[in-house]
Amino acid sequence: MTMSPATITHVSFSRRLKDRVVLGLVWLAFAIAVVPLISVLWLVIKNGLARFDVDFLTHSMRNIGARDAGGGAYHAILGTLEQVGLATLISVPIGLLTAVYLVEYGQNGQLARSISFFVDVMTGIPSVVAGLFVLAFWVLVLGLGYSGIAGALALSILMMPTVVRSAEEMLRLVPNDLREASYALGVPKWKTITKVVIPTAFTGIITGVMLAVARVAGETAPLLLTVFITDSINENPFNGPQMGLPLYVFDQAQRPNVTAVDRAWTGALTLILIVMLLNLVARLIAWWRSPAKGR
User: Fold this and answer.
1) 155-188: string of b/e by CB count within 10 Å (b at 16+)?
2) Amino acid 9: pLDDT
3) Helical H runs in 173-255?
4) N or C, which end of the chain has less CB nearby within 10 Å?
5) Contacting residues for 187 by C-beta, under 8 A, at least 6 apart
6) pTM for the whole thing?
7) What is the pLDDT of residue 144?
8) pLDDT tens per residue, range 23-52
């Protein structure tokens, strides 16, 4: 059965029309998603650049009143880097080992299903609940007090499910042919995982880790319950209250004067720049360690 030219023209026009409509809807959805993001970035950059200077990055708020000019966020920047760094050191090894077990060893076992269930539950835990858990156990039961490590523990609880799920998906994308080729050469399974599977999925794993870091870097509630607030520089995350950039923004924004609000905007801008810088470093590391590099 042959179709007439008129029928072909009609079908082609109908398909082109549907394609144009769907393409227009996709671009509309993209604009709806991007416009708020651009608006937030513009407001933060516009209001934060006024105080973004060397003094802000190198001074703390010690002996600076709420209405006094000057002061900075050095103590908060240091606290955020230490807390997020410790949270990453805690959550990444645990999350990666969990993902390796689920993909390479557990498969359809009862333990693997239980772990997957609890990972899904942890994904939906509100950040304040993680903070309350660490507050109850670390601060109240053990009596270890407020500290940067307590905040890091709360952040690591929030990071782990993201690391597990992202690493699990990346490991599943590694072709089985690579595993079978390694086994055919007599390479043990553990060595195949460490020398073949993980290096192949390394770029995706790094991306997942950075998503987890970006997810927790701006959390305020867990830090408010576990780290507390201080205007002084505390370089030791294992002893005493320690500031963080989200806490700094929260503390300054609630003060009813323009000087403090300007510091809050600049703190938000600094936090965004730190997350962007960490993502850039992660991309460079992933490119450097990529298996395809140099091919």
Assistant:
1) bbbbbbbbbbbbbbebbeebeeeebeebeeeeee
2) 55
3) 176-184, 189-192, 198-200, 202-217, 221-226, 245-253
4) N
5) 195, 196
6) 0.84
7) 87
8) 999 999 998 988 888 888 898 998 888 888
